[in-house]
């Protein structure tokens, strides 16, 4: 089983912690689903420990914490936020997010590679939020990243996997690298799809937090990633154009 | 004779005092900051009595308990009963459909928007919550305060003595020294003046991260709110928040671009983990807290719950702990 910088995940579901109706519902979404990793944004909650009460609540969940640089638009902002995250959560993990486009929140991959290099040299373990571009992926690995997190679709769009072909190609190109589909998942079927493609985990937030019943949706997502992983490991059949009967036909009176 | 001592003169404390007095109790109020003012977070509230809109992202008690608020306030201050209009930008129409699915008490409106609010050009789809109302929070606080004074309630501009009997602690986030599970949720708002635009009821503009709303205060003055940030830094508004609030107003009507910014408000809402209010009794002292973003909507229910406990020893659903 692949590890994330030496840490094996208890399961392949990573959940964000923003936009829930209340911290109590957030906590139940984690407890009832069993999601093993929580991503936390530091940018909006501000510096100087102002978000301490909320962050303490996240830490009390007892899951692995993956702080992120959500909302950062420049290398400098992202590096500063990463340092703050390391202090607040006492972890080397950082989900590196560098927004390049206002409407699609598409990552700025050029700055992403630059920031990944700086942070890796500084001892961080970087989880880069990237596109499905293979060359960018290579550059990120060369910069020291040991995990890649391509988008499924724009953040919060709930569209599912916009480009399954490219994600499949990425999986084939980097068979040994832990890959996470990050962003764009709206339904459990999307999450299962990512796992069926051989991805190692799925990271999502809005689909659960903004569902009418976030606790039930978190459980549904966990069921989906587990099903998708089981299916992938079970070596699924190939799709074909014509029927293939599952019972023998010879000797049956089928020509009547 | 039993004298009830309410500690804190924000919306929670004043509502509790008002309800106790209405039920015939003798009350005094302690608040070292004095009469209602900018020091309390209820000074900066929107003052929407909008249980159906709030229910979109809140738990069931908010809808049920909030519906009694309009009647409670009507006997104590001026309540404007013109409903709420919810609209979304063209690209956010899926959010409007979701909003509609998550709540009730509305009618879908299209062309009627132009009749309801002629100064909302370009919005062709919305939800109209006819049963909702709004009030001016500062006026409501002063009306409660003056009503209590007229009823003979004494206000002490001092810290309440620790040894008080029959004390009811309504200090909001300051009560954190006792209620350790309280947290502050930062909110930022603006008061603007724009006589060019005439809106007659609260209008909400759907936004992916916060419920943005604009509440008319009369004379071309509008309250524009409010951010919700899991932070306890109440020192300043951020540029980002200011941009988002003003962009919302501008999106509703570009004439808001000419508005004057009269006030900037920043404060922390006291909240428990489920964002619902609580009544607790510890060592004889009652604590009423955690109104979160529902100060005016749920203060009446909180006040009734406190009065039920203090006067009749009956437990409303808000009581989650009773250690006399």
Automatic annotation (TrEMBL), chain A:
1-deoxy-D-xylulose 5-phosphate binds at residues 156, 183-184, 205-206. The active site is at residue 95. It is found in: Cytoplasm. SUPFAM superfamilies: ThiG-like. PANTHER family: THIAZOLE SYNTHASE. It is an enzyme of class 2 (transferase). Pathway: Cofactor biosynthesis; thiamine diphosphate biosynthesis. Keywords: Cytoplasm, Schiff base, Thiamine biosynthesis, Transferase. One of its GO terms (molecular function) is thiazole synthase activity. GO terms for biological process: thiamine diphosphate biosynthetic process. It holds the Pfam family ThiG. Its main location: cytoplasm. Belongs to the ThiG family. Residues 5-248 form the Thiazole synthase ThiG domain. InterPro entries: Aldolase_TIM, Thiazole_synthase_ThiG, ThiG. This is Thiazole synthase. It catalyses: [ThiS sulfur-carrier protein]-C-terminal-Gly-aminoethanethioate + 2-iminoacetate + 1-deoxy-D-xylulose 5-phosphate = [ThiS sulfur-carrier protein]-C-terminal Gly-Gly + 2-[(2R,5Z)-2-carboxy-4-methylthiazol-5(2H)-ylidene]ethyl phosphate + 2 H2O + H(+). It comes from the Bacteria. Catalyzes the rearrangement of 1-deoxy-D-xylulose 5-phosphate (DXP) to produce the thiazole phosphate moiety of thiamine. Sulfur is provided by the thiocarboxylate moiety of the carrier protein ThiS. In vitro, sulfur can be provided by H(2)S. Homotetramer. Forms heterodimers with either ThiH or ThiS. One of its GO terms (cellular component) is cytoplasm. It comes from Tritonibacter scottomollicae. Its EC number is 2.8.1.10.
Automatic annotation (TrEMBL), chain B:
The keyword Oxidoreductase applies. InterPro entries: FAD-dep_OxRdtase, FAD/NAD-bd_sf. It comes from the Bacteria. GO terms for molecular function: oxidoreductase activity. One of its GO terms (cellular component) is cytoplasm. This is Glycine oxidase. Residues 6-308 form the FAD dependent oxidoreductase domain. Keywords: Oxidoreductase.
């Amino acid at each position: 089983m692949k590890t994330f910088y030496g840490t094996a995940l208890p399961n392949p579901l990573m959940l964000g912690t923003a936009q829930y109706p209340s911290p109590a519902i957030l906590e139940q979404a984690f407890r009832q689903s069993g999601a093993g990793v929580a991503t936390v944004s530091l940018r909006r909650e501000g510096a100087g420990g102002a978000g301490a009460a909320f962050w303490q609540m996240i830490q009390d969940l007892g899951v692995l914490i993956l702080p992120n640089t959500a909302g950062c638009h420049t290398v400098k902002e992202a590096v500063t936020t990463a340092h703050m995250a390391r202090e607040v959560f006492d972890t080397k993990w950082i989900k590196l997010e560098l927004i390049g486009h206002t409407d699609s929140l598409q990552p700025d991959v050029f700055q992403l590679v630059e920031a990944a290099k700086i942070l890796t040299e500084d001892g961080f373990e970087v989880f880069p939020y990237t596109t499905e571009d293979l060359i960018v992926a290579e550059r990120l690995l060369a910069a020291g990243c040991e995990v890649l997190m391509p988008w499924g679709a724009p953040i919060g769009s709930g569209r599912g996997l916009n480009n399954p072909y490219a994600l499949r190609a990425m999986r084939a190109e980097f068979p040994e690298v832990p890959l996470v589909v990050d962003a764009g998942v709206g339904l459990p079927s999307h999450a299962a799809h990512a796992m069926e493609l051989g991805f190692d985990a799925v990271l999502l937030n809005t689909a659960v937090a903004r569902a009418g019943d976030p606790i039930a949706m978190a459980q549904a997502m966990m069921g989906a990633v587990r099903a998708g992983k089981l299916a992938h490991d079970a070596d699924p059949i190939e799709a074909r154009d014509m029927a293939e009967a599952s019972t023998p036909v010879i000797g049956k009176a089928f020509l009547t | 004779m039993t004298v009830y001592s309410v500690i804190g003169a924000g919306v929670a404390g004043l509502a509790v005092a008002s309800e106790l007095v209405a039920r015939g109790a003798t009350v005094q109020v302690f608040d070292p900051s004095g009469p209602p003012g900018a020091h309390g977070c209820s000074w900066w509230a929107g003052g929407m009595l909008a249980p159906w809109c709030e229910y979109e992202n809140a738990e069931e008690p908010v809808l049920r308990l909030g519906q009694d608020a309009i009647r409670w306030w009507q006997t104590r201050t001026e309540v404007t009963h013109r409903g709420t209009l919810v609209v979304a930008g063209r690209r956010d129409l899926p959010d409007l459909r979701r909003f509609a699915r998550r709540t009730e008490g509305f009618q879908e409106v299209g062309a009627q928007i132009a009749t309801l609010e002629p100064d909302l050009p370009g919005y062709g789809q919305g939800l109209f919550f006819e049963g909702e109302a709004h009030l001016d929070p500062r006026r409501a606080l002063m009306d409660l305060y003056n009503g209590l004074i007229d009823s003979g309630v004494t206000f002490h501009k001092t810290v309440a003595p620790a040894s008080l009997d029959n004390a009811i602690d309504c200090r909001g986030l300051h009560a954190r020294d006792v209620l350790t599970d309280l947290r502050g949720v930062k909110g930022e708002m603006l008061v603007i003046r724009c006589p060019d635009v005439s809106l007659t009821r609260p209008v909400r503009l759907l936004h992916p991260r916060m419920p943005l709303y604009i509440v008319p205060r009369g004379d071309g003055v509008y309250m524009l709110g409010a951010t919700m940030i899991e932070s306890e830094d109440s020192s300043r508004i951020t540029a980002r928040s200011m941009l988002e609030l003003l962009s919302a107003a501008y999106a509703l009507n570009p004439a808001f671009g000419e508005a004057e910014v009269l006030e900037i408000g920043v404060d922390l809402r006291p909240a428990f983990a489920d964002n619902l209010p609580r009544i607790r009794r510890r060592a004889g002292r009652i604590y009423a807290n955690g109104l979160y973003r529902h100060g005016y909507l749920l203060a009446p229910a909180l006040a009734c719950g406190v009065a039920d406990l203090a006067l009749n020893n009956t437990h409303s659903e808000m009581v989650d702990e009773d250690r006399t």
